[in-house]
Amino acid sequence: MTHWVLILSCPDRPGIVHAVAGLLAEHGGNITESQQFGDPLSGQFFMRVQVEAVATRAELADALTALAARFEMVWNLDVVGRPVRTLVMGSTAAHCLNDLAFRQRSEGLPIEIVAVVSNHTVLAELAEFYGIAFHHVPVTAATRAQAEARLLELVQELDVELVVLGRYMQILSDNLCRELAGRAINIHHSFLPSFKGARPYAQAHARGVKLIGATAHYVTAELDEGPIIEQDVERVDHTRHVEDLMRLGQDVERRALARAVRWHAEHRVLVDGHRTIVFR
Amino acid sequence: MTHWVLILSCPDRPGIVHAVAGLLAEHGGNITESQQFGDPLSGQFFMRVQVEAVATRAELADALTALAARFEMVWNLDVVGRPVRTLVMGSTAAHCLNDLAFRQRSEGLPIEIVAVVSNHTVLAELAEFYGIAFHHVPVTAATRAQAEARLLELVQELDVELVVLGRYMQILSDNLCRELAGRAINIHHSFLPSFKGARPYAQAHARGVKLIGATAHYVTAELDEGPIIEQDVERVDHTRHVEDLMRLGQDVERRALARAVRWHAEHRVLVDGHRTIVFR
Amino acid sequence: MTHWVLILSCPDRPGIVHAVAGLLAEHGGNITESQQFGDPLSGQFFMRVQVEAVATRAELADALTALAARFEMVWNLDVVGRPVRTLVMGSTAAHCLNDLAFRQRSEGLPIEIVAVVSNHTVLAELAEFYGIAFHHVPVTAATRAQAEARLLELVQELDVELVVLGRYMQILSDNLCRELAGRAINIHHSFLPSFKGARPYAQAHARGVKLIGATAHYVTAELDEGPIIEQDVERVDHTRHVEDLMRLGQDVERRALARAVRWHAEHRVLVDGHRTIVFR
Amino acid sequence: MTHWVLILSCPDRPGIVHAVAGLLAEHGGNITESQQFGDPLSGQFFMRVQVEAVATRAELADALTALAARFEMVWNLDVVGRPVRTLVMGSTAAHCLNDLAFRQRSEGLPIEIVAVVSNHTVLAELAEFYGIAFHHVPVTAATRAQAEARLLELVQELDVELVVLGRYMQILSDNLCRELAGRAINIHHSFLPSFKGARPYAQAHARGVKLIGATAHYVTAELDEGPIIEQDVERVDHTRHVEDLMRLGQDVERRALARAVRWHAEHRVLVDGHRTIVFR
Q1: What is the second-level CATH architecture of the domain C2-79?
Q2: Would you call C207 and A193 a contact, using CB atoms and an 8 Å cutoff?
Q3: For this structure, is C62 an active site residue?
Q4: Catalytic positions (chains A, B, C, D) (predicted)?
Q5: Which fold has domain D84-278?
Q6: pTM value?
Q7: CB B158 within 8 A of CB B135
Q8: Looking at residue A50, what DSSP letter applies?
């Protein structure tokens, strides 16, 4: 008996739930969790089902392929809880890597961090503590293309399914963004769309906001414009300097990032144009 | 075409979703929202479906009755958005009534407040402003039974579906609690199970808590022990006196109560033993 | 014995607290609350003191005037809890007026709403219920100047100290903004600086944010750029339509606005360039 | 020039602030932060001042001793930012130690963890990574007294100023609680006073609460009854099993604990009977 998670999307129309439930029933499946959403704006239907079944992947895949043809459906089938092969990119700040690696080890975050890539070396020690291979890939204006090629090489070699930009601080080329579309998550240190671009905490301080935030989103070629997966905020007041905001912000960043990574790794996030469906 | 909301529960077993989806498909239904939950502890399955269909209530009811027999199912069918006939009980504090009446008028809260019952008269003016009949039913130790009889009379006469205790400040008899089981919501002015019973804000102040809360729950014969529908909190600090906690608490109370009433009125709350399922 | 609240600001330098505390001690004052802040960026010092004293206003004012000369100090002295004369401007949405008027009556919000001004008539009934004079001042492109003149006339006639724009939906002229500088609070229905300008909830929906917010700020000639007093947020998800965001946003708006108005009326807000000091 | 932090308390009466400000002015001090609170119930006055001054500790101490005699004052003087020597006790769960050690290294938490004490060995590796001495002190019913003696020995030998119980899971003897009074912080995994004692997440699940919480408090001989420093909560729903609550709760625990430890280490927490003053 395997515990499967199935996600799918297709143009909305009557009968989809019945057809999916029927397919699963035919394979002796017992649905343990099910969520759906029809977006009236895009006309797309989205569904996530967890089902216990003795059927093999091949049997389910065959049936789903037939169903997909009928409903113009895109689908993905995985085993519940299978760790997603993840590569974390970082710079000098350790809080994102520290948080994700800790949660993988101690809190059942279903990822396996197979590599840390950084343009600095300060994260090497932490990676080693968690038994993760560390790759130092320096980046200068002259070597950016080369560095990105090395990253893609690692992604391929290591069968990386998810790239997490944990305060990587480098802007990716349009080409790399496209290569990683739908499988790269960035944590931006502001409550987007406020304070896009550089030094958001300094911007937030200058504007005198009373809450600071962080935004986890899929990477797209348009900077800080990708579909938002999760946001969170923290209250601040006039006594806080920019340095305080940066420190307090780290908490918000790692919280929002950890949730986004968990939901992605549990196949709870589906992209609907510029927006995300999150079946929590 | 009617927009229906169906809620149901039954012992959990494979095939329920398929059977329900099939029944709805046979009646030309288009599912617009669907949530389900199988409680591994109680072994019960719970489901809420919104469906657009041309079928009549009688047609759907016949089919559901047949299905219910097969699955030992309890179900309820209503029209989405139909205002639930509601009676609000209060004492002297106006914030709960003011909030619910305002939300009914201006924010689409799907209730119709058909009566306000109070053991004081201060809420009469507010009820009148909103065009709601006000019933002054004084309560003393000697007249409690009589007052409760009058309340039940009103519930029957006015076809009341939901009784809201908006800081009513009187303890109901076991008998009345049983009569109103599943259709009476109380707002308790603490984060239950902390500070049950009387003067919770004074208790909270004495204990030096850093957050105060409120709890909306179904009324049961056991005081402050009914299934919790919603809770919320607000941060406080050492500078707050008991009076401040009471004032700040009013905001939390009306927020938690308004959400609980909305979810109940939208048929999003199902009772699972001592706990609630809330399909938000 | 009077309970005074004193706020002051001046260039920061050693000895200010000692001098102020000395002045108050000389007048037999007992400090009950005191907060201060030195802004390292602007070099300004800010202080708020509540003090019980038998001294008259004239005595205290004389002493403060002398002190102010020595420290280049701006100061204001008021009686704790004195209701601030307030004019509320609104359009058709009632939630801001309803909330402020209710809190004035039942929750000790220290304002006295002396007039409601609106370019529509729907708020008249609510104003009447609370015994507040309602002024219908229609606005068209042609009559804007005339309408603003009428508003200023009311502000003068009624000794208005605070103007609250409770979703007024009209852009004020630069001239009017300057006239009301420091004594007009607007509630913007987004988490500024996100979604400035028109239709912020539609913008928020299109961007797929996971939290919506509201911002209470002082009105300045630059639209939605005034010093922020308070912000708050509420979690939303993919199932929410624009209409849901508007409804959920109303709760956030009234919460943030009520806090900002309370803090202003209690003389807890001091302006420090583009930012505010809030001595909560 | 040293940046000092002074905290004090004494019976409330007029003139304290003036006297303290005068003392600091006489020593050429420039006040950078100052907070005070007079508790009307206990009649005690509390104050925290940060002041830049060239005076030596001896000079300030002499003056404060004289002032203290006059006002029956208890006071403490420290250098701003001096790391507080801290001993962390844990069991098998690593999240508290991981969080505190990371914040010490990367986020300027002003503590120095000088030892980790545990009745298990799983935390040894993490302690080693952070260069902290690990002491394995097994505890059985028979050896409890011996284990506590060993702890007190370490506290003395290492000049420990603060003991943090980071999910230590052992009940301390009354005697040890008294020995560590005011310098031991425990994180309880519930929103106290809800769910005191054992297995709070199981209790919370059974009660069907909609928010789970954590409470950081000073250790006293009465179990889970010490003065509360900080509390926080996290929203949960019916889909969460006890294991989920435990995992989600770890986030709340480490957040509340980290804040409490920071405030304690920055001398922002003063005990007022069963309650705390937190000058944030």
Answers
A1: 2-Layer Sandwich (3.30)
A2: yes
A3: no
A4: 224
A5: Rossmann fold (3.40.50)
A6: 0.96
A7: no
A8: E
